[in-house]
Design a protein that fits this description.
single chain, about 250 residues, alpha/beta, Rossmann fold, 7-stranded parallel sheet, 8 helices, about 45% helix, globular
Length: about 250
């Protein structure tokens, strides 16, 4: 019989970046249903996420922060830990995408994507690691990668580069921190119904081509990613270090 407590997050505090909508919201709600208290971080209102988390019976606190500024993100984490106590899990979900032919992509679009998707991810991991190790605690980090961590894609040069970097960073940190009680893993979502995929879903030809390749026959939902995140945050995945789980409806299997 499965020990359901292995999938429980009761008594844990989980910080989720970009929790206002999409995958971040799906992760926050799934973790709340598993018993965790949620700290949502982002630039936009998280009122809807707060209502959903509280409806699941969990506590929710919202923190406004421009995560595109890595220093501001790290300061936010330090202040949150000091003000309200230890954080058991960090989910680096916040991310942006800029679409342009490679010959046209601007330096600004490159820098903004890399700063949020990769640089802030690293420095939030660093802040988490410093606090957890100094306190002699254990912890979990879940980084949100992408199927484009393993493929090239088209017209998303900075996004693809950043998501390749997320997988490499996840492996590096797992190697350093695994022996010290911090599990660092990643999820590679496929094509999920979020703000970042609006342009693709509105392009009938592109959307049809994408669906034709997905064995599951549908776009993913944020809850699909949320359930995988709960697994990586919970005791059940205790022997997982440096792994990237593809939650893509079978996209990479084709």
């Amino acid at each position: 019989m499965t020990d359901l407590s292995a999938f429980s997050l009761a008594g844990k505090r989980i910080l989720v970046t970009g929790a206002n909508t999409g995958i971040g919201q799906g992760i926050a709600v799934a973790a709340a249903r598993a018993g965790a208290a949620i700290i949502g971080v982002g630039r936009s209102s998280m009122d809807e996420t707060g209502r959903l988390v509280e409806a699941a019976g969990a506590a929710f606190s919202a923190i406004k922060c421009d995560l595109g500024d890595p220093k501001a993100a790290q300061t936010m984490f330090d202040e949150t830990w000091q003000a309200s106590g230890p954080i058991d899990g960090l989910v680096n979900n916040a991310g942006i995408i800029r679409r342009a032919d490679a010959v046209d992509l601007s330096e600004t679009d490159w820098d903004e994507v890399m700063d949020l998707n990769l640089k802030t991810t690293f420095f939030l991991c660093q802040a988490f690691g410093r606090h957890v190790l100094a306190a002699g605690r254990t912890g979990r980090i879940v980084n949100i990668a992408s199927v484009l961590s393993f493929q090239g894609g088209i017209r998303v040069a900075s996004y693809t580069a950043s998501k390749h970097g997320v997988v490499g960073l996840t492996r590096l940190l797992a190697g350093e921190w695994g022996p010290k009680g911090i599990n660092v893993n990643a999820i590679a979502p496929g094509y999920v119904v979020t703000n970042n995929t609006t342009a693709l879903r509105q392009d009938e030809d592109r959307s049809a081509a994408i669906l034709a390749r997905i064995p599951a026959g549908r776009w993913g939902e944020p809850s699909d990613i949320g359930d995988a995140a709960v697994f990586l945050l919970a005791p059940a995945s205790g022997y997982m270090h440096g792994a990237t789980i593809s939650v893509d409806g079978g996209w990479l299997a084709r």
